[in-house]
Description:
six-stranded parallel beta sheet; Rossmann fold; seven-stranded parallel beta sheet; 2 domains; elongated; alpha/beta
Amino acid sequence: MKVGHFVPYLEPMDCVPMLLSLLKYRSEAGADQFVVVGESGPQTMAVLETGAQLFIEPDLKSAVGVLAGADVINVHCPTEEWGARLFGHVQKANKPSAFTIYGQQFLRTQIPARCICVTPSVYYSQPSSIGASDLVELGVDLEAVTPACGNRSAIVDTIARVGRGWRHKESFWWAMADILARHPRVCIEIAGGDGAGTQRVRAVSASETLSDVLARADILVATPDTGEGSVTYGLMVAMAMGVPAVLTDMVDLRGLAVDGDTALVVPDGDTAALVLAVESLLRDESLRCRLSAGAREHALSHFDVRHRVPQYEAIYADLLAVGRPAAAHPVPKGGARLARAARWRDHFNSACVALRNRRPAHANRPEV
């Protein structure tokens, strides 16, 4: 079975890590596959190192022509919007296809094809009447991740946050302003950010690998915003590396960690709780060590990407056998409606908490 993978661009965030894992572990098993990309990027060499054929086709018509040589097509979409844009083009290849969806847009689109969803919120947002959906959560290539637990100093210097800067919630910046004012040594690195930043708030471009950023980090803060993309991957890598984390209680994050054992969990949008949790890690080395060890152990047991690859293989085999997107795994009845209601409740509660905690700019707010 020959699988053709299509991805719009090759950046370390979003969909490329899962693509690289599929290429690596399917190739080791002797699978036949190739990759078509819309444009090259920082991870182009990483794709070539897997041994897979790589075609760079900026024109979608040319890309579809290459993909037509596959038995099954797997389109890797950063968001559902990308999936909707690509669906019509991929259909012209007239081959069984699956769309792996890594994140949602605020205004959700619909893709009438087999969808592989990487988070529960994306999975339960798919209407049961539109194609079929499978939940295959992201994983970490543990062979490529070096634990940094033993290299951390007793003094915290760096707090990391994964995601593009404009998508951080307001509560994150209010909390970090307080942290920077109270702890002059601490700086913040935004992995996947843009711009020059400042002396204490640094934007790390997408050309630097996530592992390199997290190797410098003493604490990870995970406060994803609506439609941010695959919000779970950064937390999974941090836990695999033993980076102690503070995360907000959101649908896609709450199943990845145990509060007090593998991470600290705070209410979404609660600035005061976020400050308190971060400061408890800044001041308590034993707590950082305990969470670091617990996170690493949890990641080894639950996040190994090699356990995800057979799930993709089963979907590819199913598609090839049926010859078209099949409804073998429909979304549970009522699940989409309930999940949407839960997600809106989360957004509403977050907004209410943020408004209660919102404060005007004050004289001692640091320049960040």
